[in-house]
Amino acid sequence: MYGAIEPLTGDHFLYEYPKLNGECFQQFLDWLSQQLGSDYAILQIDQAPAHTSSAIRWPENIIPLFQPASAPELNPIERLWQALKKPLKNQLFSSLQALRERIQEIFDQLTFDQVISVSSYNFILEALFYAASY
């Protein structure tokens, strides 16, 4: 699953792909670019090989921001992933598909306020305001 959130507005995007590789990441970027329309986004990402591949073609309206290695706590989406795991705790699923469907259901039920709540930490907001000033 690939996701993106906007900590200031609570906008959130999720799309499932079969693999976590460069090809699927490129498809996610292209899809996210379409979802954004004429808006721009700074996409904070880790340094996974799929994210740093020279084959990645960054859409004009998505600007990559690579976070330091081994620092997932700096990325707002990581906080959302943690929040999504809580309702899944101690549940058994009959299949991988059932788990996928439950994750999508939880994600679809998220409100903008919930996304803001888990992702709008002061240091994140300050960084966003600083980046927006340029």
* Total tally of structural domains: 1
For the biggest β-sheet, the strand order reads 1-2
CATH topology type? Nucleotidyltransferase, domain 5
Number of helical segments? 6
Element order, helices and strands?
EEHEHEHHHH
- Name the beta content range: 5-15%
- What percent of the residues sit in helical stretches (DSSP H or I)? 40-55%
The average pLDDT score comes to 88
Distance between the termini: 31 Å
Provide the CATH top-level class.
Answer: Alpha Beta
Domain Tc1-like transposase DDE: 1-100
Protein name: Transposase
GO molecular function: nucleic acid binding
Pfam family, one: DDE_3
Description:
There is one protein chain. With 134 residues, the chain is of the alpha+beta class. The chain has a single domain, classed as 2-Layer Sandwich (Nucleotidyltransferase, domain 5), CATH 3.30.420.10. The protein has helices at 22-36, 49-52, 76-85, 96-109, 112-119, 122-132; strands at 2-5, 12-15, 41-45, 62-66. The strands form two sheets. The protein has a two-stranded antiparallel sheet with strand order 1-2. A two-stranded parallel sheet has the order 3-4. The longest helix has 15 residues, at 22-36. The radius of gyration is 15 Å and the shape is globular. It starts with a strand and ends with a helix. Residues 1-100 form the Tc1-like transposase DDE domain.
